[in-house]
Design a protein that fits this description.
Length: 305
């Protein structure tokens, strides 16, 4: 976003927060350089020696995944604290309103600048993460369904950044003190991330494989799938944990007759559920972001007319 092409409150907003706004593009550029360097170094070579760069790439991606989880929290905290609450707390916004700027234009400039910069940088970070993730995808803690990797490889993290902007816009006007607003907005956005992390794999029905009691349905789950749970099945369809028959009644592994166990099951999400889950979660989070932005303007109208 060029400062020269901006006018009015948007230009003022970019000028006020230019250091922070340049921090995200700088982080994107640094991430690209590091990722490309590690991927080139980690390219398999015809040698029996362990490739330390492959491990370095994995470690970097694990850290990057956690960083992508924190990004929406930082966006919410910055919008609520330094962008909005600090101006209200110091009275700077009154100066802006004397320059033929309406309260609505003042808030809109903050939201637009924060949304464009954070969403653009998040989208670029997704592409960079996927560039480095390609040769190590499926390895331990870097599967498509793992926390961090799931968010960093799809559009959902962009939606969370926009949610952070919306939450920050509400909290920054509601609390109007920099540090409390920063903490509350970051906490609320973080809680939403945690809640959706727990709920996302219960939206779609997992695929179930069943087998006789002597079988092993877990072995039939595709390697690319996300294993949910496995256990025992009773004749009534009731499920028991896998250790529910810890003491078999005979050497063939049959359970005690009173348990009425007839087989085993395994639930999993195939890779085909990845994009569908991403789209459902992204749409839901964007709806919450829109609701937060609507609330922000209602708060503005109630407090400043």
């Amino acid at each position: 976003m060029s400062v020269l092409t901006l006018k009015g409150p948007h230009w003022v907003t970019v000028r006020q927060h230019r250091r922070a706004l340049w921090a995200l593009p700088a982080a994107v550029a640094a991430s690209l350089v590091i990722t490309v360097a590690l991927r080139v170094a980690a390219t398999p070579k015809r040698t029996l020696e362990p490739n330390i760069w492959y491990d370095a790439l994995r470690s970097a991606l694990e850290g990057a995944g956690r960083g992508m989880l924190i990004l929406p929290v930082l966006v919410a905290a910055y919008v609520a604290g330094p962008m909005l609450a600090r101006e209200t707390e110091s009275g700077t916004y009154r100066l802006a309103l004397t320059q033929s700027t309406t309260p609505r234009a003042w808030l809109t400039s903050k939201i637009v600048v924060a949304a464009v910069v954070s969403a653009t940088c998040a989208a670029l970070m997704i592409g960079i993460y996927r560039l480095g993730w390609a040769p190590v995808s499926g390895s331990y803690q870097l599967s498509w369904a793992d926390r961090g990797t799931y968010e960093a490889t799809g559009p959902v993290v962009v939606a969370y950044c926009l949610l952070g902007v919306g939450v920050g816009a509400v909290v920054g006007q509601w609390i109007r003190r920099t540090l409390p607003a920063l903490l509350v907005a970051g906490t609320v956005t973080g809680l939403v991330l945690v809640v959706f992390g727990f709920l996302r794999w219960s939206v779609l029905t997992p695929v179930t494989i069943t087998a006789p009691l002597t079988g092993h349905p877990e072995l039939e789950v595709p390697r690319s799938a996300f294993m949910m749970e496995s256990g025992l099945l009773k004749g009534t369809g009731e499920r028991l944990p896998s250790w529910g028959c810890a003491t078999p009644s005979d050497e063939f592994g049959a359970c005690a007759p009173d348990l009425q166990v007839t087989g085993r099951y395994a639930d999993y999400h195939p890779y085909a559920h990845y994009w569908l889950t991403q789209l459902i979660e992204t749409a839901t989070v964007l709806a919450l972001a829109a609701l937060a932005l609507h609330t922000a303007f209602r708060v503005l109208r109630a407090r400043r007319g």
